[in-house]
Amino acid sequence: MNNFIFQNATRVYFGQGCVKEYLSCLTRNANTVLLAYGGGSIRKNGVYDEVSGILRSAGKQIVEFSGIMPNPTYAKVLEGAKLARESGANLILGVGGGSVMDCCKAVSLAARYDGDVWNDFWVQPGVINVEPLPLGVIVTVTGTGSECNGGAVITNEEKKLKMGRDYPQLNPRFALLDPAYTYSVPAKQMVSGGFDILSHIMETYFSEPNEDNVSDDIMEALMRSVIRNLRAAIRDPRDYTARSNLMWDATMAENRVIKMGKKCDFECHNMEHQLGAYTDCNHGCGLAVLHPVYYRHIYKDGLPKFVRFAENVWEIPRRGRSDEELALAGIDALADFIREIGLPTTLRELGVTDQTPLKSIADSCGISAGSYRPMTHEEILEIFNECLA
Description:
It is a single chain. By secondary structure, the chain is α/β, with parallel strands linked by helices. It folds into two domains: 11-182, 3-Layer(aba) Sandwich (Rossmann fold), CATH 3.40.50.1970; 187-388, Up-down Bundle (Dehydroquinate synthase-like, alpha domain). The chain is 49% helix and 11% strand. The protein is built from 15 helices and eight strands. Strands 1-8-5-4-2-3 form a six-stranded parallel β-sheet, sandwiched between helices. It has a two-stranded antiparallel sheet with strand order 6-7. Strand 6 (151-156) and strand 7 (161-166) form a beta hairpin. The chain is globular, with a radius of gyration of 21 Å. The mean pLDDT is 96.
C-alpha cells in the first residue's frame, strides 16, 4: 500500500432512536442553533417536529435556514453565512442528505471567514486558518457519505462551475444516523443515492495500486453489500436491515478509510459535476449514465482490476473468457444493474438535448490525475456524445 495519514474527527451515533437519545446532550453548549434543511420534506415526515421539539425542550433558540437545493449554490452558501452571523448562531445543525450537509460545511467556513470563500477555497485548494462554525448533522437521505468527511460540492451558477473540496476542518463534530429516517425518501431518490454510494467506491477501487491491498478487499465487500441491499430496499422500502446497511455503506465509502493508500480516480464525478453545473441534473442519475461508457474507454489501462471486479463483485465465472472478455462482462453487469434498478442510461433521459453545449461542458471538466489513463477534454466530449444515444 502507498503511504498515508488517516484522520476523521466526526463522532457517529448510529441506529434507530439515536436522535431522541443523543441530540439534546450533543447540543448542550449551543444557545442558538441554525437549523438547516432542504425543500421541506422533513416537515411532512415528522423529522422536523421531532428535532425542533428536542431543541426547544432544551431551551435552544432556533434560527431556520431552509430551501437548500439538490445542487447547493454559492449564493445559498452566502445566504446561510449571513444568517449565521446576524443571528449569532453557535451551532449549525444540518438535517437532510448530501446537499444539505455540503452546503452547511461551506456555510460553517463562510460564516467565520472575511475573504472570498469561493475563490480562496473552492476554485483552488486553500489553507483554513479560522475556526469554522461548529456543525452537526442528522442524515435523512443515504448516498453521499458527506456526514463523515469535510467534502463539500458547491455550484457557482454565475461561473457555470460545480466544484468539490475536502477539508478535514469542515468535518461535522457529530453525525446522527437513524436508518428509519430514510423510509420516506422517494424511490427514485433512494435508488440514485444508492448508486452514488457504488460510484464512490468504484471511483476509488479503479485506481492504483493494483497489487494486493486492504482497501481493495474492503471495497469489494462494500460493493457487494450495496448491490445486495439496494435490491432488497427496492423490494421492501421499509426493510430496516437493508436501509441500515446502505446507510453504513455510504459512510464507509466516504469516511476516508477505503481511500487510504489509493490514488483515487473520480473522473466520472468531475464529468457529472460539470453536467450538473450546466443542466442541474440529478447527481446519481448522471453518474449512472457515465460510468459504463467511461469504463469501456479505460478498462484496458487497468485490466487486472476490471477482471477482479467481474470475478469478485459480480461473481462472473471465467469459462474460457480472456481477460478482456471478462473485464467487459463485468462492465456489462454494471450496465445491466443500472437498468435493473431503473436508473437512466442516456443523457437524453436527463434532459440533455442537441442544443446542450456539450463541448463547453467537456472543456470545463477537471482532469483526474488518479485515473488509469488521464482523460483529455476531447475524449470526455466523445464520452458525452456516446452517452447521448
